[in-house]
TrEMBL record:
Annotated protein name in UniProt: DNA-directed DNA polymerase
Keyword Metal-binding in annotation: no
Molecular function GO labels: exonuclease activity
Alphabetized SUPFAM superfamilies for the sequence: DNA polymerase beta, N-terminal domain-like, Nucleotidyltransferase, PHP domain-like
Designated gene of the protein: polX
Catalytic reaction list: DNA(n) + a 2'-deoxyribonucleoside 5'-triphosphate = DNA(n+1) + diphosphate
Residues covered by the DNA-directed DNA polymerase X domain: 1-320
């Protein structure tokens, strides 16, 4: 456990005791101890081992004992018991502005409120305002706070968060006195959803930047403004959706910038490993420096920090403590795939099914993006809600593809289909028709509620069909809206590897399915990955970049991704697969 972790635990104890109505003297002792621990010089574990903790002013015998348990075992039964003794709703209520532990306890005592839902109801009926120490103003503020949590308390998809983040960043970079600026946190790591925006700036003078930041037009509300840190709520309409996110801006000296950039990029788990690496080398790494009592290691960028800890540069997408440190030590970090490596796409829709553009329009838009091939993958006959193609229409489409290909230059339409995997795992076209496609994407679009074993068997059966080239959106999830169907992906990957099938990363930002964690696993099993935008319009072809981000988080190199190959190579491989389908 790090000092920060111990401090968090002590703060939590203090707060939970306040919720229980403990006297201020006792609760403050925990909060004070949390600050003390954070500021202790040297290695906490060492101090504990040497029995030096109780000598620190403000940390008595009892506290030293608890800290020792935390540091040596990683948890504290006393805290666990305390947590269990308090309704979780009370802790959640602390997130609301103006509600400290004392007020939450009062609401619990007076009105038996133990959840945000009950609190909302009591505010709406005016009960809260009648209580001593509350009043109409507090009640309104609580209701606003609840509305805010509803609105921004949840995570936001990367395709919506990124434009807002970039809009803020662009304006911040133009402020006078800004030396360097970057979006950090989960957004820089290109996680599929983010909770807030973490913006970092270096400058010799923070105040003017703080002042200018809160005046940016996208800023809706100022939550807090200090000398070097401001928190706001910022909003922007992106593709017809109002996106609202908390944005924290921190300003540091330019010499501190690389350390702060690394720290606020995270992930927390990666940071913890890096901090330990520094400790192993007699140094301490935090958001300001890499140093010890006698020296400070100057670093002009993140590469210098990694180098000082005997590591090559680690891309932000890999910083999840899922092996990047170990791979770095062995000089085995992957050269990650980049957008410009992608030379075509396979899973897309046209006006034949539920797309909005014609074959030719889609192909020309693909060419505009620099693609050499546009694979059409309209829906199959059973998916009537998405205007799936009956077999005669498929043949009509093939004829049109031949006509359009004859006149197109620089891009080729490939004849594919997104074929439904039916309830029993069979495919939605006859084998005879399937044999006429250059490739087949097989996807589940129905009967999502099956038990896991059945769904797994269904998809595995489809994957063992000779006509199938790749699996589409493997779990059917819709981020922040719908969990995927229950399926054993380990088993699916095994079957895909056995039959030499590919798996798609569906790049629709609402899907990003296969998840990056399984992408990494698929790579280890030698399964080729295909990045598909699943475009339903010409504009959506560009969504492939979100798929590239998932691929990068899944450690993929150019060679791991099938559609980084050129047209001739792709056509040859697809033809080979049709010749010897199970190889
Ligand atoms: P999010 O906001 O949930 O999408 O994910 P992050 O990773 O952006 O998390 P956030 O905003 O809470 O913090 C930004 C970064 O700051 C995080 O990735 C790593 C660093 N950080 C935050 N809290 C801690 C901590 O307690 N310990 C360490 N070592 N780093 C932390
Ligand atoms: Ca964040
Ligand atoms: Ca944050
Ligand atoms: Zn689909």
């Amino acid at each position: 456990m790090t000092k920060d972790d111990v401090a968090d635990a002590l703060d939590e104890i203090g707060t939970l005791l306040e919720l229980k109505g403990e006297n201020t003297f006792r609760t403050n002792a925990y909060h004070n101890a949390a600050r003390l621990v954070q500021q202790l010089p040297g290695d906490l574990a060492q101090m504990v081992a040497d029995g030096k903790l109780a000598e620190v002013r403000g940390i008595g015998e009892a506290l030293a004992l608890k800290i020792t348990t935390l540091v040596t075992t990683g948890n504290l039964p006393y805290l666990e018991d305390l947590r269990a003794s308090i309704p979780v709703g009370l802790v959640k209520m602390l997130r609301l502005p103006g509600l400290g532990p004392k007020k939450v306890k009062a609401l619990h005592d007076l009105l038996h409120i133990d959840s945000i839902e009950k609190l909302k109801a009591a505010c709406e009926s005016g009960e809260v305002a009648k209580q001593k120490g509350f009043g109409a103003k507090t009640q309104t503020r609580i209701l606003e706070g609840i509305a805010y949590i509803d609105q921004v308390g949840h995570r936001v998809r990367i395709d919506l968060a990124l434009p807002l983040g970039l809009a803020l960043l662009e304006q911040i970079r133009a402020f006078p006195g800004v030396i360097r600026a970057e979006l950090c946190g989960s957004l820089r790591r290109r996680k599929e959803t983010v909770a807030d925006l973490d913006i970092l700036v270096s400058s010799a003078d923070a105040q003017p930047i703080m002042d200018a930041f809160v005046k940016i037009p996208e800023v809706i509300q100022v939550l807090g403004q200090g000398p070097t840190k401001s928190s706001v709520v910022a909003g922007l309409h992106v593709h017809g959706t109002k996106v609202t996110l908390q944005a924290d801006l921190r300003v540091v000296e330019d010499t501190q910038y690389p350390f702060a950039l690394h720290y606020f990029t995270g992930s927390k788990e990666h940071n913890i490993r890096m901090r330990q690496r520094a400790i192993d080398r007699g140094l301490s790494l935090n958001e300001y420096a890499l140093a010890n009592e006698t020296r400070s290691v100057p670093c002009k960028d993140e590469t210098d920090i990694f180098a000082a800890l005997d590591l090559p540069y680690i891309q932000p997408e890999l910083r999840e403590d899922t092996g990047e440190i170990e791979a770095g030590e062995l000089k085995k970090l992957p050269a990650l795939v980049v957008d410009s490596d992608i030379r075509g796409v396979f899973h897309n829709h046209t006006t034949y099914s539920d797309g909005t553009a014609s074959l030719e329009e889609m192909a020309l838009a693909a060419k505009q993006l620099g693609f050499e091939y546009f694979g059409v993958g309209d829906h199959s006959q059973s998916l009537t809600i998405a205007r799936g193609l009956p077999s005669n229409v498929v043949r009509k489409q093939w004829a049109e593809i031949d006509r359009v290909n004859a006149k197109l230059e620089g891009v080729r339409i490939l004849k594919g289909s997104e074929v439904d995997i039916l309830e029993d795992g069979s495919l939605d076209y006859t084998d005879e028709l399937l044999a006429g496609f250059e490739y087949v994407v097989a996807s589940v679009h129905s009967h999502f509620g099956m038990p896991e074993a059945e769904m797994t068997a269904r998809v595995c059966k489809a994957l063992s069909h000779p006509a199938v080239t790749m699996l589409g959106h493997a779990t059917g999830r819709l981020l922040l809206k719908r969990e995927g169907y229950k399926i054993n992906l380990d088993e699916v990957l095994k079957v895909a590897a056995k039959h030499g099938k590919m798996i798609e990363i569906n790049a629709q930002p609402s899907r990003l399915d296969l998840d990056w964690k399984y992408v990494k696993q698929a790579k280890a099993m030698g399964i080729p990955i295909v990045i598909n935008p699943d475009a339903h319009s010409t504009g959506e072809l560009a969504l492939y970049t979100f798929g590239v981000q998932v691929a990068r988080r899944g450690w993929l190199t150019k060679d791991d991704v099938f559609n980084t190959r050129g047209l001739a190579d792709v056509m040859k491989e697809l033809a080979r697969r049709k010749q010897s389908p199970t190889v």
